Amino acid sequence: PRVSCSRRCAQLQRTRKLVHPSKPRPHGSDTAGSWRLPQASTNATMPRVVVVGASFAGLYAAKGLRRVADVVLIDASDEWEFTPGVHEVLGGRRKAETILTSFHDALPGVEFVKGVAVAAHEREVHVECDGERKRVPYDHLIVCVGCAYARPIKAQLASLDRRAQLAGAQRELGDASSVLVVGGGAVGVEVAGELAANHTVTLTARESELVRDLPEAARRYALEALRSKNVRVKLNGEEERGSFDARVACYGARPRTGWLATFVDRDARGFVRVDDRFRTSMKNVWAAGDCVAKDADQYLAAYAHFEGEYVALMVASEILGKAPPGAYVPPARIVALALGPDDGVLCYGRVVVLKGRAVPWVKALVERWVVRLWPLPYELFRRLPALA
């Protein structure tokens, strides 16, 4: 249950010197987030696992570990956002609250601290909340802070009311006649496709093609679909000189890892370096999701989901003294790209498996599954064959 930051951090501070500052806790009632996870003895006390960042990776790591650990989740917001639905909110098709879920509803049995992590040390994380700096002790730390992105695609930590951010962006775009969308990746393409029904949209990209990480057939289909909706597509970094009522930037993801400083190894861009089991350079510290240095085509919500489940298995094996799982093997890439409310393209590996009206329905079904934190079991998906 959610408690005040000051009260919860005071409780944690009193026990921070314990090697295992833990307490017995009833198990959660459902097993969806702990597929094949080893179970602790009912008589065992539980070490504390602190998860920083309630992203896809962080949520699934927290859920997967709540049976074997006293889990504390730290995030700047008290609501989880289904970010793949943001373009529908910007287009006015949905209200902001439909993509936001309270952590109390999503993760019963996990304790929550609302605040921003500002420093990490061996055995404790420093958190800024309610205008004060608090210390949160841990036995195991999992960093899942994701990436910052231009507004309004991602929440801005300086303004924690995400509902107000999204509602304001929706009003601004609703009042606009012409919109410039900058960025030719999946985010930019989905935003342009969504806005095209009620706006004059121009999409610009530095690259020579849209969504370059998708199969050629999908790239071609996306370009044709946008042009059929009268979206003006300008590639190769061609400068757009016209005036527009609104502009949406869909580029520039940056890892939110500055607070880690030299605590763990990071690359030149700030992404956390991990090994093939998502261990960082510090013992008992893991990282997963979009803040991790990995192949460019793995910065997807589905991969963050898989990584969160895998890290839960790794940490559970450490806690229980069991053999760890084998090295992480990325499952085949699955991408459902929306091209407006009634069109899209679905890719598995390098093959286009579905096009047209059915794709938005597939995305809606996936959302209904994921917001309930039901599993996309990593152990199953990693065994599926890749289609070249």
Commentary on this structure:
The chain has 10 helices and 19 strands. The protein has about 400 residues and is an alpha/beta fold. The strands form 6 sheets. It has a 5-stranded parallel sheet, sandwiched between helices. A 4-stranded parallel sheet has the order 13-12-11-14, with helices on one face. Helix 2 packs parallel to helix 8.
Which secondary structure elements does this structure contain, and how are they paired or packed?
Blueprint: H1 5-14, E1 48-52, H2 56-65, E2 70-75, E3 79-81, H3 86-90, E4 100-102, H4 103-106, E5 111-114, E6 116-121, E7 124-129, E8 132-137, E9 140-143, E10 147-148, H5 162-174, E11 178-182, H6 186-195, E12 200-204, H7 216-228, E13 232-234, E14 246-249, E15 254-255, E16 285-287, H8 301-320, E17 334-338, E18 344-348, E19 351-355, H9 358-370, H10 378-381
Parallel strand pairs: 1-2, 1-9, 2-5, 9-16, 11-12, 11-14, 12-13
Antiparallel strand pairs: 3-4, 6-7, 7-8, 10-15, 17-18, 18-19
Brief write-up:
26% of the residues lie in helices and 21% in strands. With 388 residues, it is an alpha/beta fold.
> What would the principal axes of the Cα set say about the shape?
globular
Would you count the extended β strands for me?
A: 19
Order of helices and strands: HEHEEHEHEEEEEEHEHEHEEEEHEEEHH
* Percent of residues in helices: 25-40%
Report the sheet with the most strands, covering strand number, pairing sense and barrel closure. Answer: 5 strands, parallel
